[in-house]
Specification:
The chain is an alpha+beta fold and about 250 residues long. It has a domain of about 160 residues. The protein contains five helices and eight strands; from the N terminus they run βαβααβααβββββ. The strands form three sheets. Strands 2-3-1-8 form a four-stranded mixed β-sheet, sandwiched between helices. Strands 4-5 form a two-stranded antiparallel ribbon. A two-stranded antiparallel sheet has the order 6-7. Helix 3 crosses helix 5. The longest helix has 13 residues. It starts with a strand and ends with a strand. The model has no long low-confidence stretch (mean pLDDT about 80).
């Protein structure tokens, strides 16, 4: 079974101890974990074991971090659990070793070593992992338009109209006639009829306007990401694999 190494440098010893306990709780064997502090600076076996795991010049940077009060956590884990171990160590606030190296050099000007730069070192392969990043943009999906349409329809309404008709009425009487009874006279009575007068006026009966309603919804995006891992194998002169060599991963 291939064994890998995950390393984390902590500014606080309590954080390193917490990371160690979390690794044990995750199922890693206690004997596979080790803490190196300034008190262990003279522990030759520990330093030799560390030199087997961390190449120079990185080793000098880590040891300087320990010398200046940091605590180094080393975890020997099966290759398939390296990522989980690195995640646990990273959750306990280890220092960013590249940024911390700048501070270490300010405190110790004699520390000239640079961390291995995979971009410039032809002997280093990078482990590359794609990360899904989500953003959002506003796109027009359609429009709602309102406009007026003029239409015609028949409307019927009733109104009472009065039509006048003049009639002649006669009734029988018996009385003496007046002296001028035979003088010519003319009487007229006008007839009037009512007729309907139609007029129209525009009346607003309803208002229509456009309004927006926004609704927030969660969208789950599933994407396939790639990861380029690095594996090491020892081969003989004919190119045949002799053994698988464990890798070293730094937090």
């Amino acid at each position: 079974m291939a064994i890998g190494t995950v390393i984390g440098l902590f500014a606080e010893n309590a954080h390193a101890a917490k990371a160690l306990e979390d690794l044990v709780a995750a199922g890693l064997h206690r004997d596979a974990l080790d803490l190196l502090s300034a008190d262990d600076a003279s522990d030759a076996p520990k330093l030799r074991a560390l030199s087997d795991l961390v190449p120079e010049p990185d080793l000098s940077i880590y040891l300087e971090g320990v010398r200046q009060g940091g605590t180094l956590l080393t975890a020997q884990v099966p290759a398939e659990t390296e990522a989980r171990a690195a995640e646990i160590i990273g959750a306990n606030t280890p220092v960013n070793i590249r940024e911390h190296a700048v501070t270490l050099k300010k405190q110790n000007p004699e520390l000239k070593a640079e961390l291995i730069d995979a971009a410039r070192d032809p002997n280093v392969l990078e482990v590359v992992e794609e990360v899904v990043e989500l953003g959002k943009e506003k796109v027009e999906t359609g429009r709602l338009r309102i406009y007026n349409v003029v239409s015609e329809s028949k409307v019927s309404k009733s109104i009472p109209l009065v039509d006048e008709t003049v009639t002649v009425q006669r009734r029988t009487v018996s009385r003496d006639a007046l002296a001028d009874a035979f003088k010519e006279r003319v009487f007229e009575l006008s007839e009037f009829d009512e007729r309907a007068i139609v007029s129209k006026r525009a009346q607003v009966v309803e208002e229509v306007n456009l309004a927006k309603q926004a609704e927030t919804r969660d969208k789950t995006v599933t994407e396939t990401v790639r990861r380029a891992d690095v594996r090491a194998e020892r081969v003989d002169a004919d190119g045949r694999v002799i053994e698988t060599v464990h890798s070293t991963e730094r937090a």
